[in-house]
Amino acid sequence: MYISPQLPLICPLEGKRLAKNNNQLCCKNGHGFDIARQGYINLLPVQQKNSREPGDSKEMIASRHRFLESGHYTPISNTLNELIHGLLTHTDSINILDAGCGEGFYLQHCQRYLKAMSPDKKIACLGMDISKPAIIAAAKRAKDITWVVGTNKHPPVEAGSIDIAICMFGYYDPAVFARILKPGGYIILADSGPEHLLELRKIIYPYIKESSMQEYVTAMDFRNENSLKYTMTLNKEQIADLLTMTPHLYRAPRAGKEAAGEVLEMDLTVDVLFRTFQLKQV
């Protein structure tokens, strides 16, 4: 497992810094966490789980991997990369956290882009997800990124250690991110816009709910907002993967999913809103 020396991982039980000891990460109070042979570390204790196997399933991860590798969401990745590159400071060392990284698509592409654009900087990337199957898949994808099973409610990193956090269509807590960011650090949130996958949603739901986004207040200053909208054409298999990799798999009624399964080809709107916030400097 690759563990960047720039990234201060902490014990999820007591918050003490972890250090490598043979095939474990250990804190000074004696808690040890085995490094998996697949190249990741599980820092999600039982008391922080909301179910026996939290997060996305193997089926969802496999569908997401196939869909993302098809290139249909590459414009989202490219936009994210450009936004992050624009936030890089004159500091030589940059710590980036992908909170809810899934199978690692966005973080891997981000790391490659930043290394090519800013080869003089020491960029450490940490991917974290509550789903163990997701992190196993991510660890197979990139060997030079630190991958951790963990939760966005209790990210196992030291306070004030992250320069840029990203959260792609996931859960976030303003107070938690404010704690782990360095003074003046940034968070980029990607959320679905009102027209995102609208054509598919019209098929699988009897009526369409207006999308809503969590407001970001307290210790964060709003910096900017960037919108990305384009159309993609999917075949039957890609529609099935898209449906399986999203929460629509559980939310949509059976009749709606069956109707979507009969569609051979579909033009779909991609509508994503990126919002950038900065931690206030006291």
Summed up:
This protein has helices spanning 58-69, 74-87, 105-117, 132-141, 174-180, 198-204, 236-245, 248-251, 254-261, and strands spanning 19-21, 24-26, 32-34, 41-42, 93-99, 122-129, 146-149, 162-168, 181-192, 220-235, 265-279. It is α/β, with parallel strands linked by helices. The protein has an eight-stranded mixed sheet, sandwiched between helices. It has a three-stranded antiparallel sheet with strand order 1-2-3, with no helix packed on it.
Largest sheet: 8 strands, mixed
Number of domains: 1
The CATH architecture classification is: 3-Layer(aba) Sandwich
Specify the CATH homologous superfamily. Vaccinia Virus protein VP39
Rg estimate, integer Å: 19 Å
Characterization of the model:
The strands form two sheets. The chain has an eight-stranded mixed β-sheet with strand order 4-7-6-5-8-9-11-10, with helices on both faces. It starts with 18 loop residues before the first strand and ends with a strand. The model has no long low-confidence stretch (mean pLDDT 92). It is globular and about 55 Å long. The chain has helices spanning 58-69, 74-87, 105-117, 132-141, 174-180, 198-204, 236-245, 248-251, 254-261; strands at residues 19-21, 24-26, 32-34, 41-42, 93-99, 122-129, 146-149, 162-168, 181-192, 220-235, 265-279. It contains nine helices and eleven strands. The chain has one domain: Vaccinia Virus protein VP39 (Rossmann fold, 3-Layer(aba) Sandwich). It is of the alpha/beta class and 282 residues long.
